[in-house]
Amino acid sequence: DFDGKGIGSKDGFFAQLNYKGVDPSKPNSWGMRVRYFDQPQSVYLYPTYDANNFDDGQFGFGYEGWNVGVSYAFAKNIFADVDYYDTESKGDIFGYKLKDRRIYSQLWFLF
Question: How far apart are alpha carbons 9 and 74 in whole angstroms?
Fold first, then answer.
């Protein structure tokens, strides 16, 4: 059902603002990012972000929310990403919107 209001909407968007940026070849370099998601289930197949997309195969509503993250290079070719996500489903189940908050981190070793 393409209602134009979210769940079955044909339109979605994603916005990202970056400050600086980590350079893995330069120790102590860093970067920050802020992202906003408005992703009805009909506009993506397999999202590559670590936010909860509330698609468990049974209730595929899509999601909206934001993310803030930082990256830091500890040494040459060793850096980490830490991201915080705050998202909620675009639809509801029994009158309740599903919400999720998570922290996701990665440590990268480049060869």
Answer: 43
Walk across the sheet containing 96-109 and list its strands: 13-20, 30-40, 62-75, 78-93, 96-109
Amino acid at 74: F
Distance, CA of 81 to CA of 22 (rounded, Å): 9
The three-point CA angle 97-98-99 to 5° equals 115
Q: pLDDT averaged over consecutive 10-residue blocks of the chain (111 residues)? A: 54 92 97 93 73 69 91 98 93 82 96 91
Closest CA to 61 of 85, 89, 38, 37: 89
* pTM for the full predicted model: 0.82
